[in-house]
Amino acid sequence: MPIWNNRCLKDLKVSDAFLQTVLIVDDDRINRAVLAELLQRECRILLAKDGETALQRARDERSIDLILLDVSMPGMDGYEVLRRLRSEPQTANIAVIFITALTNEQDEERGLSLGAADYVVKPISPAIVKARVRNHLKLVAQRNELERLSEKDGLTGIANRRYFDKAFELAWRHAIRSGEPLSVGMIDVDHFKEYNDHYGHGAGDEALRQVAQALERAAGRPYDVVARYGGEEFVMLLPGLHELEPLLERLRRAVLDLNLPHARSRTAEVVTISCGGVVAFVSQTDKPAALLGWADKLLYRAKQQGRNRVLVWQGQKEGLFLPLGQGMASKPPESAG
Ligand SMILES: [Mg+2]
């Protein structure tokens, strides 16, 4: 049963409290049971009896915060498990504490130089293991919180470009593996400079906040990302989405419905947005930047055609898609819109 871990987090804000998970890896059933018993009130516990199982669980479970890793195990030993954890991006940053009966200094040095956070010698002292686990879980929680803050746009509260870049890279790789489409949209607030000039920067900031929130509400699927790309420009990432145009149209509508008066707009009486989007089936040879560049060109064209509109280029899995590499960036499709 998951247990909310408040004790490790008592110095953090309540809103930061989340379930922390510890994976215990030991070939000895008794050792696993002793550690699980010891920590069960501190965190959620997962168990693995060998290295292969541990690696599998670390890959499957997205939320492992800490691994207690036995060094001596038949088959793959703890050092090898750690080396493999570090070699995969998905598991590379999980904190690891070695728990071992090996007591010489070289063993300890080897473990630490492989990147273990700590080293505990068997027979364990329950109080010390508990304290060390607590400390490391707290560090992990603080690191996660910093990470979260560093990926959030200070003004609008939605994801920032740094977060987008990371999500885009993951989504790109997934799209190549899965053959699913990868949709991106670039969004720009129309006549925003005039808005700032007329209403002042404070009002401009508030308008951006409202637009950002409206975009985020209107997007809505779990893996969709709406991020501030810079200035009054936003970017969207929509993995697996085939029909981009209705969605961007919904966003355009949502911003219109905010009804923010814009006396200096030459497009409408209220704040509006323009959107350019591409539904792409990508392959190894394509460049992520080219896809964004393409969406940006469509956005530019939507602006030229009068703003407050959506232009989407729809890729086909069979047939027309994808012009490779450079071509994608330099030659926006004439069929756009
Ligand atoms: Mg062992």
Automatic annotation (TrEMBL):
Any GO MF annotation of the entry: diguanylate cyclase activity
Domain of life: Bacteria
Residues bearing PTM 4-aspartylphosphate: 70
Entries under SMART domains matching the protein: GGDEF, REC
Any single Gene Ontology cellular-component annotation: plasma membrane
Keywords recorded for this protein, A-Z: Phosphoprotein
Enzyme Commission number(s): 2.7.7.65
Catalytic activity: 2 GTP = 3',3'-c-di-GMP + 2 diphosphate
Domain GGDEF positions: 180-315
Top EC group: transferase
Biological-process GO terms, alphabetical: cell adhesion involved in single-species biofilm formation; negative regulation of bacterial-type flagellum-dependent cell motility; phosphorelay signal transduction system
PROSITE patterns listed in its UniProt record: GGDEF, RESPONSE_REGULATORY
Domain Response regulatory: 21-137
Protein name, entry field: diguanylate cyclase
Biological source species: Labrys okinawensis
